[in-house]
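Hey, can you fold this one?
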Amino acid sequence: MSGLLLLGAWALLVWVLAWDARRLSLGLLLIWAAITAVHLVAPQSGLASALGGSERIWLVWGGIGAVAAAYIAGLRHLRRRAAPAPQPAEPAPEPGKLTESELDRYARHLVLRELGGPGQRKLRAARVLVAGAGGLGAPVLLYLAAAGVGRITLADSDRVSLSNLQRQVIFRSDDTGRPKVEAARAQMAALNPHVEITTLPRDLVAGDEALFAQHDLVLDGTDRFEARAAINAAAAAARVPLLSGAIAQWEGQVTLFDPARGGPCMACLFPAAPEPGLAPPCAAAGVVGPLPGVIGAMMALEAIKHLAGAGAGLRGAMIIFDGLYGETRRIRTSPRPDCPVCAGMARNTA
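Sure. Predicted structure:
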């Protein structure tokens, strides 16, 4: 029947052009109406004979199609109105215990002798402040969230730009223009809903001692000496350990500044800003993309060790990594008696 061929040809055209079901239905309805009209108006004409069938057959096909369309429309209406089945809420854990989902999520931590359940509970109870969501902050934030650090505060005043994406792996192309703290928070929350995330869309300053004192550890991933000096001064005044990472071109370093417990502060090692041109920013000097991931992952590892009390930390030591030649060195660091920031501080060396 030529009429059925017309209907089939229209369905094939819709499939080839990837049109939606509405166009398919509308086209089929118009073709059926035209064929039926020909049979009703001129049943003995050559056109009616060429289209095939009779008015009764085409009316029956139309009725079947109407019933099918009504059935599909009814199903869609019911789906739109139906509320999703409520998911049973996970029971609140007993004090000091991990939930079933946390036991599954952190299973690889729990079997580590140096972490186990006690270490994971320490991570869940920890409060960490991260300065900067750039190259170093990106892996730090992802790994701390994935590890289950309970409360993370993120401070950064910058917005995501296209040039960030070569190394700042927490962001995506469609994040361009968004505040970094918002984009980073979304990725962290998607990675681990058990983590409480607070965002500060600003830079940290030397007067933030009260904020620093609310945390167990500060991680500094900023890229300007002035910002680092201000963070160091606030951390020293609040007597909070400061885990610091720095990168340039192919090299990076990680250390723990903790003058309140016998270690040096940043000013002990770097009392003055470098001369202009000696330490240009990454925008001028360049940085290889994976380097922030290497140093940022080291920072996250040292943070987990510090918070859980596992292994030997970097208080009084610095790791220097040379990515171009694949070399790593560990050097000792000491506080300076004449340090302008921490000299005279009461130190707990126990």
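The longest strand covers residues 242-248. Let me know if you want another pass with a different chain boundary.
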